[in-house]
UniProtKB/TrEMBL annotation:
The keyword Oxidoreductase applies. This is Short chain dehydrogenase/reductase family protein. Residues 373-395 have a biased composition (Basic and acidic residues). Belongs to the short-chain dehydrogenases/reductases (SDR) family. Keywords: Oxidoreductase. Signal peptide: none annotated. Gene3D superfamilies: NAD(P)-binding Rossmann-like Domain. GO terms for molecular function: oxidoreductase activity. Residues 415-425 have a biased composition (Basic residues). The keyword Oxidoreductase applies. It holds the Pfam family adh_short.
């Protein structure tokens, strides 16, 4: 497909990237972004306005106070109010709404304001995020660190849930709508040193999985978009809990994510993390990256969101990027192999004949079985549509180095459980504790 180039970054540091793809629709859509100040959100808004859509931009009060955090959004507003030909009409199609997602009343008011201004909401994009870095034990040493656990769930879980609850009556009444949830592959794979971040993400995704079935009769679709973890980490606030020396051993993977993030933050003088203070105090900072690095980091996810948002038959989950797909596949493979190893033990609690147990053990992989449709709106050729959809998502050729190595972490998990490749070696050891 031939694509034209478009400018997706701030005007002071432009980077030419392929134009975004959008689903076919008859009229402009109205988007509501729960957090519009992140580099990803600003670039998404620019593409939406250029496409002709309307945007209600949620502005979290805690983030408005940070001048550096607001810089790109202010540049966007200046462009909207300018006489630039490419920005003509933008100022009439964007509305900034100050809202703290942790307060349900403010979410209700923000949704009501967006509906009053634009007449409706078609796509609700839940994109609020903040990462708390620390092990389970490091986040339970004193009242201050324990409060970080609640803050983590307030930002990632309760914040998004409040917006969803506030928008549901409107979407249900109009019997149409799409809810996009931006999380990460941490919704599939646990990351040492980010236990509470993973826990809050899994809670949100579990909530959305159940909600999908509840709202399907009202033609409301829900899609969880999972980019690599650095997308959300490096574009939102990062809070470091004090380190415990017991976890600083060479063979412990917990400090790895802390060290990598500290290395990135220390590359900018305004976000440097003092290694000594990091061990005794709580530090919180918004990463500052060069404009071109931000574009390379987030644009593949931005293009995924534009291609999926408002789609007639969107996927329930969409993983962005090859590395994320490979990591999740490997994790699912490990889970599947462990289930196969203990299928007889699992079936032992049920009253089945021996032949039924054997059938369970020899069951064909899901890819070889007839696909069952559990929600009426998903038709039999859904997989083909998703494949076509993914082809329209353009990814930049280059990107910043990925944080950590998910493949090696899966290999370590396999090794720690005594499981090698299943090719010709039979089952792994069953002698460990489970």
């Amino acid at each position: 497909m031939e694509r034209k180039n478009s400018e997706a970054g701030p005007s002071n540091n432009p980077l030419k990237v392929p134009a975004a793809s959008f689903p076919t629709h008859n009229s402009p859509r109205v988007w509501f972004l729960t957090s519009a100040l992140s580099p990803l959100s600003v670039r998404l808004i620019r593409l939406l306005l250029k496409h002709g859509d309307y945007v209600a931009a949620g502005l979290p009060p805690k983030e408005i106070e940070d001048d550096e955090r607001c810089l790109e959004f202010k540049e966007l507003i200046n462009d909207c109010n300018s006489n630039k030909k490419q920005c003509e009409g933008w100022k009439d199609r964007i509305r900034g709404i100050k809202v703290d997602g942790r307060a349900k009343s403010q979410c209700l008011a923000a949704i009501a304001e967006a509906i009053k201004v634009f007449g409706r909401i078609d796509i609700l994009m839940c994109c609020s995020s903040e990462a708390v870095v620390g092990t389970v034990e490091e986040l339970s040493t004193n009242p201050a660190t324990r409060s970080l656990v609640r803050d983590q769930f307030e930002t990632i879980y309760f914040n998004q849930v409040n917006f969803i609850k506030s928008a549901l009556p409107h979407l249900r009444e109009k019997r149409d709508g799409h809810i996009l949830i931006l999380t990460g592959i941490t919704g599939h794979i646990g990351t040492p040193g980010m236990s509470m971040y993973c826990a809050a993400t899994w809670a949100l995704e579990g909530f959305c999985d159940a909600l999908t079935y509840e709202v399907a009769p009202f033609n409301i679709k829900i899609t969880i978009v999972q980019p690599n973890k650095e997308i959300q980490l490096l574009t939102n606030r990062i809070t470091f809990a004090p380190q415990l020396p017991q976890y600083e051993t060479q063979n412990n993977p917990a400090p790895q994510i802390r060290d990598i993030l500290a290395h990135v933050l220390n590359s900018h003088p305004d976000t440097r993390i003092d290694p000594q203070n990091d061990k005794y105090s709580i530090e919180s900072v918004f990463p500052i990256l060069p404009g071109e690095s931000k574009d390379k980091l987030v644009m593949e996810t931005v293009h995924a969101l534009t291609a999926i948002g408002g789609h007639e038959n969107p996927p329930a989950r969409h993983i962005v990027g090859y590395e994320g797909i490979a990591s999740v596949k490997e994790k699912l493979k490990i889970v599947s192999e462990e289930m196969e190893d203990f299928v007889e033990v699992s079936c032992a609690v049920d009253i089945y004949t021996k032949s039924a147990v054997s059938q369970a053990a020899l069951a064909k992989p899901r890819s070889q079985r007839k696909r069952s449709v559990s929600i009426e709106r998903r038709d039999s050729n859904n997989e083909g549509k998703i494949a076509q959809l993914e082809k329209r998502i353009t990814m930049p050729e280059d990107g910043i180095n990925r944080l950590g190595n998910s493949q090696s972490r899966n290999d370590g998990l396999r090794k720690s459980r005594g499981r090698g490749s299943r090719g010709g070696k039979g089952r792994g050891s069953q002698g460990g504790s489970h």
